């Protein structure tokens, strides 16, 4: 965003024939490096170890592990619609949490359902720009960081309580987000490992950015990026909508499977917004078709049973089977007498 603003300020001057264009001063990146050197890394390692204490295994969703071959991810995208996005924002505002927290809790519930766990971890990107560093908002440099997010899922807890607890835990770690992921994983052990990632694009959109002085007009903005994680959820909030894009490695998740995951996430978000007082156990992740398949078709195990007794079967069965049945009966009687 900072680089784009510099380009927007520079282009009109170049088109106007000026060789030099005066840009507003920015704080140097070395100020951030100096700030980073002053942080208590030992305290940060302890904080992350405490935050992930009690977990002894990673949260892995991809079947068969992570593919090592470099490949561009495919993606599926849905939009919640203006009404649903407004309800999510209103629910978050009422509960005193951020929309990002709502999405993280929903993704955590989806992961818990798919892995059969009530305590899950996934990755999330952090902006990494410390609020107490003057001029950091206009500083050019690498700040972004990927860090673990732990979501505890108590089936008896309400959605509202789960969201509030998640935001409290995240807030307690804000001062320690400068620690790199590798250090966090060394401090916390296997619990800090994960194979899914959330990217919440919270930077504000500027409608005037498309109008560049000097007659130029930006008609389209886009970009391609990728991560090595099997699943990456990219959340793009707008003024009247919420876009959810799920990037998936095609060797691990095909398109229909990725779309099914995204549809389940949308259902969870709708339920969170509609009933924040509902218990976590009451939030249904499955669609009607999926529930019909699991409860109806997969549970249809009735089979015809022959009209015969064990004794009758033993008399008509082969000698070896009759001998085993007699032995079982004698062993059973002996156990009952003893």
Structure, explained:
The protein is of the alpha/beta class and 338 residues long. The chain has one domain (28-207, 224-297): 2-Layer Sandwich (Chloramphenicol Acetyltransferase), CATH 3.30.559. The chain is 42% helix and 13% strand. The chain contains eleven helices and eight strands. It has helices spanning 2-15, 29-37, 41-51, 82-95, 99-115, 159-172, 181-188, 255-274, 288-297, 310-316, 319-337, and strands at 74-79, 119-126, 145-152, 196-200, 211-212, 216-217, 231-237, 242-248. The strands form two sheets. A six-stranded mixed β-sheet has the order 1-8-7-4-2-3. Strands 5-6 form a two-stranded antiparallel ribbon. Strand 7 and strand 8 form a beta hairpin. Helix 5 (99-115) packs across helix 8 and helix 10 crosses helix 11. The chain is globular and about 95 Å long. The N and C termini lie far apart (82 Å). Residues 331-338 have low confidence and may be disordered.
